[in-house]
Design brief:
Order of helices and strands of chain A: HHHHHHHHH
Shape of chain A: elongated
Number of strands of chain A: 0
Structural class of chain B: alpha/beta
Number of helices of chain A: 9
Low-confidence stretches of chain B: none
Strand content of chain B: 25-35%
Helix content of chain A: 55-70%
CATH superfamily of the largest domain in chain A: Alpha-helical ferredoxin
Low-confidence stretches of chain A: none
Oligomer: heterodimer
Mean pLDDT of chain A: 90
CATH class of the largest domain in chain B: Alpha Beta
Number of strands of chain B: 34
Strand content of chain A: under 5%
Number of domains of chain B: 5
CATH architecture of the largest domain in chain A: Orthogonal Bundle
Strand order of the largest sheet of chain B: 10-7-6-18-29
Largest interface: A-B, 21 and 21 residues
Radius of gyration of chain A: 16 Å
Distance between the termini of chain B: 21 Å
Number of helices of chain B: 18
Chain lengths: 126, 662
């Protein structure tokens, strides 16, 4: 498994081997017709080393993160988390490794929500 | 001083390829008490056992250590060989150098070292072994079958045909179980009632079989061959001896609003009722929660119309105590509750039903007299969608982890029957996998597809939406076509997972029989002892042990009966001599051991003891050796070290540990 695949699994926390290929995710997906790679295919893209294609697919932007697939997956595979991880890969690629923990104190004031810091690290740290 | 012989088995290459067996034998010669050591290709073979007999004779051995496979495999073999050679069978110890050594190591040096240590421990134990004599206990020649479905019925018939008495305890008012609710059976499509009712009648007519319906097991005590069971006969309010089963009471009963359990709640029944027309016994019961007379004191109509004078509102629950040699659990299954799967709209629409409910709808004696109708408006459906694996094969804490095994086949059956009787109805089946192992099973499923035109769609349903016009929109996916599908259906049938009947948890506790995480009863060995519980004298029949269809249930029921017959045919049983006993000078009467004993084998007695010249009366633990199974829980619990186990004494175990740590 290449670095990219491992990264997706690490970010998403998904174990793709749990999938039993029932397709309930694709049956539940409101964006199905908009997607070029369908929710039930996310798992096999990662397992078969095609994460690059997944990250470059339309599906990355078309997933609404409604989590219907996560809610209904009988195997707890959580496909939405895979496509979100692929999206994260793109974001990190784009913004580079530009944030370090030492930068934080000068960037925040009392009103800064903690969540903003967390998402900043997700975007600007590889 | 013992004279110990050590025998190291090669087990072909199983052991010898990883363990230097000659070195193990040689090393044992310098151990305390060992006077003879040898190795051989197959110790369990006849010539291997002959070697043991010769060595016992030549070297006047008093104890044996066999370095071989797991004692679960061949301990009994070597104990028998020892007995034949004139040594007490409990003077034999097995050092497991196969499963616990050669199979799990690759390095010969390491494995050999470990085998020597394991053998050393066994030698240290044998040095402290003393001969044990197994006792005898008599066998009560009657069996109890708990559950009166097809599993219980078949088991009871087979035992009774062998000439032994059998009691069936069934908690509902009639025997018959789930099979009596089914319309047709796969893969032959013969009518379920037509093949079941003769068996029910056979049971009732058999002189060796006593049926207790509307009854439950209240308490179980005793042990294999000698169980004592309290059976609670719930008040029926109808005298079974007088009732002629004419049915007039049910007809006249003014309280008719209760939901029929037999029809899965799809129709009503009267307060006094038999669950179905062919009920055995054909004696109604009065539901006290529905009966106007029992609730308000007024009415009494059934009593007035009963020509046989069989109605008795004063009847009370009754406890019957009976003795049994063997107990068979045949408690069966239920369909899971679908609350966790509201995406399928089961609670929102009457037209979303389970497959068992469809069975009742298709049945001529069912709520619609066998006409395929929507439960909401009575209209004939034109589009029916079946959803497979609802709550089966789940890893999400909502459903069951296992495959329910019967759904693929009964769905093919339902689809086929509907297409046969109503060719204009479209039938679609959403499936994940179609699993059809079994004689003529796959052919059956293929017939549904090829001859009856059932539309099988590989994919799952995401949700079912009830529409204002009364139809149901099924949102699914067709993975082969690579598209989402929306089907406008009139009826959706869910193949809901099956689970063991809820009563099994309490029953397992009463019987000290173990259950798994899914509440299925555990078998003594998954392959080699599939119909026996690990608790001696308790046997398993039907779905209480795991999902299975009717042919499999009937085979297992027969197998359980054969095991029971084998047990009841004996006049007495050899008891395990490895039982616990307490040292009356050490016991402080704290009850810790009695609290942990899973067999209820420990009681207390006030006994006069002589403690170094001081005579006093003390409360002392006493072990009933007939009940004790030698599990050892009491010995590790006892805070004063008074409890000890024959054959596994604290001293012996410490000696083993010392030998390992040396």
């Amino acid at each position: 498994m290449s670095n990219r695949e491992e990264k997706v699994l690490q970010i998403s926390g998904v174990n793709p081997r749990k999938c039993m290929k029932c397709g309930k995710c694709s049956a539940s997906c409101p964006s199905y017709d908009e997607m070029d790679i369908k929710p039930h295919q996310f798992v096999s893209y990662v397992l078969n080393g095609r994460t690059k294609a997944l990250a470059e697919s339309k599906s990355v932007e078309k997933c609404l993160a409604c989590f219907a697939c996560v809610e209904r997956c009988p195997r707890n595979v959580e496909p939405a988390k895979i496509i979100d991880a692929a999206r994260q890969l793109n974001v990190r690629q784009r913004y580079g490794d530009t944030l370090s923990a030492n930068d934080i104190p000068s960037l925040i004031d009392e009103d800064t929500p903690q969540q903003l810091l967390v998402s900043a690290f997700r975007k600007y740290k590889r | 001083m013992q004279r110990i012989g050590v025998f190291v088995c090669h087990c072909g290459s199983n052991i010898a390829a990883t363990v230097d067996v000659k070195r193990v034998a040689l090393a044992m010669l310098s151990e305390n008490g060992v006077v003879f050591a040898d190795d051989y290709q197959y110790m369990c073979s006849e010539s291997g056992q002959l070697k043991i007999a010769q060595a016992v004779k030549e070297h006047n051995l008093t104890g044996l250590v066999i370095c071989s496979c797991s004692p679960r495999m061949h301990e009994a073999t070597f104990r028998k060989a020892a007995e034949k050679a004139g040594i007490n069978p409990y003077m034999v110890e097995i050092a497991n150098i196969r499963e616990q050594c050669s199979w799990i190591h690759k390095d010969i040096e390491q494995a050999t070292q470990k085998a020597i240590i394991l053998a050393r421990a066994a030698v240290a134990k044998v040095n402290l072994n003393s001969p044990l004599i197994a006792g005898k206990s008599p066998v009560k020649k009657r069996a109890l079958v708990i559950g009166g479905g097809i599993a219980g019925i078949q088991t009871a018939l087979d035992i009774a045909d062998a000439g032994f008495e059998v009691d069936i305890v069934e908690k509902t008012p009639s025997i018959g179980g789930k099979m009596s609710q089914l319309d047709k059976t796969f893969p032959t499509l013969d009518c379920s009632a037509c093949i079941l009712t003769p068996k029910m009648v056979d049971c009732a007519a058999h002189e060796k079989i006593t049926i207790f319906t509307y009854s439950e097991v209240e308490n179980v005590s005793g042990f294999v061959g000698n169980f004592t069971v309290d059976i609670k006969k719930k008040a029926r309010y109808v005298d079974s001896a007088k009732c002629t089963g004419c049915g007039l009471c049910q007809e006249k009963c003014p309280s008719k609003k209760a939901l029929s359990e037999f029809n899965c709640g799809l129709s009503n029944r009267s307060a006094i009722y038999t669950p179905f027309a062919q009920a055995v016994p054909n004696v109604p019961v009065i539901d006290p929660l529905q009966c106007i007379k029992l609730k308000t004191g007024k009415c009494g109509l059934c009593e007035k119309v009963c020509a046989a004078n069989a109605i008795d509102y004063t009847q009370k629950d009754e406890i019957i105590t009976r003795e049994y040699g063997a107990i068979v659990v045949a408690t069966g299954f239920d369909v899971i509750n679908l609350d966790n799967y509201d995406e399928y709209a089961y609670s929102q629409s009457k037209d979303v039903i389970t497959s068992l409910e469809l069975e009742r709808i298709m049945n001529a004696a069912g709520p619609t007299k066998g006409h395929l109708e929507r439960m909401s408006d009575g209209k004939a459906p034109k589009n029916i969608v079946f959803v497979q694996c609802v709550g089966s094969r789940c890893a999400d804490n909502k459903g069951k982890s296992y495959c329910s095994k019967i759904c693929c086949m009964y769905t093919a059956k339902h689809a086929m029957l509907i297409r046969d009787k109503y060719p204009d109805v479209n039938v679609s089946v959403f499936y994940i996998d179609v699993r059809t192992p079994g004689k003529n099973f796959d052919e059956f499923y293929r017939r549904a597809v090829e001859e009856y035109g059932v539309n099988y769609i590989k994919g799952q349903v995401g949700k079912v939406t009830p529409e204002p016009d009364g139809s149901l929109t099924v949102h699914g996916v067709d993975l082969i076509d690579g598209r989402q599908v929306k089907i406008s259906a009139d009826m959706v049938v869910l193949a809901a997972a099956i689970e063991p009947n809820a009563s099994v948890r309490q029953l397992a506790t009463q019987l000290t029989a173990s259950i798994d995480t899914n509440n299925f009863l555990t078998e003594a060995h998954p392959k080699l002892r599939p119909v026996e519980s690990p608790t001696a004298g308790v046997f398993l029949s039907g779905v209480c042990q795991g999902p299975k269809d009717i042919p499999e249930t009937v085979s297992q029921a027969g197998a359980a009966a054969a095991k029971v017959i084998g047990l009841l045919a004996k006049n007495e049983l050899t008891t395990n001599p490895c039982t616990a006993h307490s040292d009356e000078l050490l016991c402080n009467g704290c009850s810790a051991c009695a609290n942990v004993c899973p067999y209820g084998a420990i009681s207390y007695q006030d006994k006069e003891v002589n403690d170094h010249g001081i005579r006093e009366t003390r409360r002392i633990a006493m072990v009933n050796t007939a009940l004790c199974q030698g599990c050892g829980a009491c010995t590790v619990t006892c805070p004063s070290g008074a409890m000890d186990l024959n054959g596994f004494s604290n001293k012996q175990i410490i000696a083993e540990v010392d030998a390992i740590c040396r």
